[in-house]
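Colleagues,

Please find the record for the two-part complex below.
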Amino acid sequence: MNKAALLEQIKAKRSVLCVGLDTDLEKIPAHLLKEDDPVFAFNKAIIDSTVAFTVAYKPNIAFYESMGVKGWQSLEKTIHYLDEKYPEIFTIADAKRGDIGNTSKMYAKAFFENMNFDSVTVAPYMGEDSVTPFLDFPNKWVILLGLTSNKGAFDFQFIENAEGEALFESVVKKAQEWATADQLMFVLGATKTEHLARLRAIAPDHFFLVPGVGAQGGSLEEVLKQATNKDFGVLVNSTRGIIYQSNGLDFAQAAGIAARTLQQEMERLLF
Amino acid sequence: MNKAALLEQIKAKRSVLCVGLDTDLEKIPAHLLKEDDPVFAFNKAIIDSTVAFTVAYKPNIAFYESMGVKGWQSLEKTIHYLDEKYPEIFTIADAKRGDIGNTSKMYAKAFFENMNFDSVTVAPYMGEDSVTPFLDFPNKWVILLGLTSNKGAFDFQFIENAEGEALFESVVKKAQEWATADQLMFVLGATKTEHLARLRAIAPDHFFLVPGVGAQGGSLEEVLKQATNKDFGVLVNSTRGIIYQSNGLDFAQAAGIAARTLQQEMERLLF
């Protein structure tokens, strides 16, 4: 998907909401467990009930891998379903991959060719040749880790070089030599909003994928105030606050209501 | 597997060889393509012909993921085969994973519970809580990226803080607060031997997994000279130099000869 198509959808839905699909057999409603593929049944119902308020879905690949072959099948069904029924949706494989060139190329093949994801999250530690193989696919995106939402972000991402530039800033600067804002986004955690403005100054044109609103404690208003740009420039992810609102028969309806509530707040703050 | 068992095998085989299983349908012998599962058939033959000279196998997970559900099945068969037939072998899921705590826990489940890998490679960018979930599994290992063998390593891993300490050194120092040498190894590329001694000084007790000998240009002699410690302390990986020696009917035999040649060089240099 290109940037124009993403922006069109944001404007049409008046939303920058991304819904995380961290689907866990221990957390989904018990009545789904009798389905052939409970994970896909859950995802399909969540997608159908939230898609009117949502511009992106982000399956968290770890949750599928933890279920082995069955999990991989559920993931493939989920991305095919999105692709067929809602081709306007921006899809994110939240995989945090990254390896030497010939290996990153294989990950790119997995997520961009075998499954038709629009984007994949990539870890920056191994540098340029671990990232660029993902960029060889036209209209596919790399979402590079910049500043993450977890506590461990403080271990290395804030290490400053002799000029006082933190590692996450070096990453966001350097990566702009590899791709334009039409193919590269950055992950920037909502729990660290005091740095969002600083990063917006370094990367004025790029989209930021912002996790950490809700369960992890980030404020939507603060994120939108600090991080938006002339093209909106943010996708705000929510997972637990949407998909696990209820584990009864009304789980999909409850997810829809939570998504609508967030969308309305986005509409109020952004449009 | 605990460290004592690994050391016992190193001494018995007089080898620190790890064979990478980057199994690619485009590179394996054509006659295997008529098998039900060509990838597993290739891996099984390579393992059987090299195991006498080898202490560890390292499937590169990207290559299996790039084949979707089928690839995941081949991977599961490969690890089960190693586990059943050669339980003395140290197995490495070369996956370069790492995410927030609840997600790393799912990756750990994928590789340590559903598949019985002894270890997984992990990327350090997200810090402590992205690494420690893997350490909750007794006798399972984290192999953390320190200094990688690729060109992109120079983008971020060499950034120095105000005290002149490079990022890869900070990573290797900090991670030792999270785990002992009985559960934590580091990836250190053979192409950067001038730094191996420096890293050995920082981490005297930890095993180093050293990729990059052979196709990537690293020297075995230099690696062993710089990186060994009192417990050997290295696993030296070779992939293309062993598994793709021949793509004819003699591919397994050729791999065995290449593995034996490397083992003999290791024996000469180390024992």
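Chain A has one domain: 3-270.

Comments are welcome before we finalize the supplementary table.
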